[in-house]
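Priority: medium. Attachment 1 of 2:
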């Protein structure tokens, strides 16, 4: 009887670990400029985001073209533990902290020199095909920003 209980517990724990390990954001996402809103604007020309699961957390790489035609590349690797991790490539932010709200939702705070400058909410649709990223804060020029970016999944890397 003792053996059966241990085996059942192991099976349940394994199932829970696998269920928690799947992060629906993992993969490649392309911005749908027409479905997105940029306040104050103008809109970005393009953006792609790649999320890769690593032993240190989620590796994030953003590439694209800004509204003014300049190339963009922002990167970080961070777990969902609420601690600050280095962020490179952004004139507005130099660190990020992330927390998972539920399987489909995560919040992040981007900081510059330890001071919060952007609050970011990321939500994945239940079918895993759309990601909405809402960023509220102040950019490097001191302009208040509220962008709602809508992304379509290009590739799932599960």
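Attachment 2 of 2:
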């Amino acid at each position: 009887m003792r053996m059966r209980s241990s085996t059942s517990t192991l099976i349940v724990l394994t199932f829970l670990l696998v269920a928690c390990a799947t992060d629906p954001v993992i993969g490649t996402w392309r911005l749908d400029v027409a479905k997105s809103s940029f306040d104050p604007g103008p809109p970005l020309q393009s953006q792609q985001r790649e999320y890769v699961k690593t032993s240190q957390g989620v590796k994030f790489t953003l590439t694209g073209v800004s509204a003014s035609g300049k190339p963009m590349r922002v990167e970080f690797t961070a777990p969902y533990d609420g601690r600050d991790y280095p962020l490179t490539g952004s004139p507005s932010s130099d660190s990020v902290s992330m927390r998972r709200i539920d399987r489909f939702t995560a919040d992040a705070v981007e900081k510059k020199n330890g001071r919060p400058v952007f609050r970011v909410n990321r939500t994945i649709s239940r079918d895993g095909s759309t990601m909405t990223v809402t960023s509220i804060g102040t950019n490097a020029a001191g302009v208040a920003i509220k962008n709602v970016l809508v992304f379509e999944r290009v590739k799932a890397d599960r």
